[in-house]
Amino acid sequence: MSAYRLLADIGGTNARFALQAPGGGFADIEVLACRDYDHVKDAIDAYLARATARGRATDDIRHAAIAIANPVEGDVVSMTNHHWRFSIAGLKDACSLATLLVVNDFAALAQALPHLDATGRVRIGGPEAAAVDGRPMGLVGPGTGLGVSGVVPAGEGRWIALPGEGGHASFAPVTRAEMRLLDALWEEYGHVSAERLLSGPGLEAIHRALAGDSLAAADISARALDGSCAACRATVDAFCAILGSVAGNVALTFGATGGTYIGGGIVPRLGPLFHASEFRARFEGKGRLQPYLARIPTWLVTEPYPALRGVAALLDAATR
């Protein structure tokens, strides 16, 4: 029987897979494009076939865990930002598994936060003092969508991640320019969530509203970084400022004096533009609670596959 467990972190764009031996590190990490597969099992089968070709024993894997960018309530998972839909029990049987744990992806990422060290995170402004040990931590992450979560201490070194869909909470403008953004997006979407702005499609939506033309998110970021497009730089600046406001809201909601983290795939690509942005000022800019927020450190998650670490910890707990 294979000693490996199968781990996956599935977003709206990419599915990240790994094998893990009990108590060991990750092996055969591979990223597959979700659009290339009709069903989640097709992606799993393709990954396992490649791992087998690399010499891994995968025929008898019995335990697996999937972190997925979606609410996980009941047996049926239907992804918000991708077409995959599946039954957890059906997938477990189809893969001949004894254990299949399926959890929200940002709950898995939140579970990894207490274990990140200096190599897996970068401070974004704020105080040099350390976070308060044993206190809740907040998490916000723009990618294909917007993930929001937190993790709270549960005693004896244990932590409990809080799954939720805070990215779909209503967007609240802070400036007159953002009120105009909201007005433009109302016309397009009706309800305007934070995710409508803080995501890949959100970056594109901000640019349409500010510049009046359409560009892909990757092009907006690239042109802002190389200085070739003032409108793209304005788009990125607006994105970072809004992210700061939302992260501050999350910190207040969770009482996240253990720190607030930025995950997801977009912000690491913004490089120096994010560090020079209004993110931190907007994080703290909550009126009478500014001194409270000023004491809370903010970090950018730089570890390549943190949700895999988190979902592995959740699988450990489920199979004890």
Automatic annotation (TrEMBL):
Stored NCBIfam families: glk, PRK00292.1-3
E.C. number: 2.7.1.2
InterPro entries, alphabetized: ATPase_NBD, Bacterial_glucokinase, Glucokinase
Annotated compartments: Cytoplasm
Classification via CDD domains: ASKHA_NBD_GLK
Family: Belongs to the bacterial glucokinase family.
Reaction catalyzed: D-glucose + ATP = D-glucose 6-phosphate + ADP + H(+)
Highest taxon in the source lineage: Bacteria
Annotated keywords: ATP-binding, Cytoplasm, Glycolysis, Kinase, Nucleotide-binding, Transferase
Protein name (record): Glucokinase
Top-level class of the enzyme under EC nomenclature: transferase
GO molecular function per UniProt: glucokinase activity
Short name of any one Pfam family annotated for the protein: Glucokinase
Gene: glk
Residue sites binding ATP per the record: 8-13
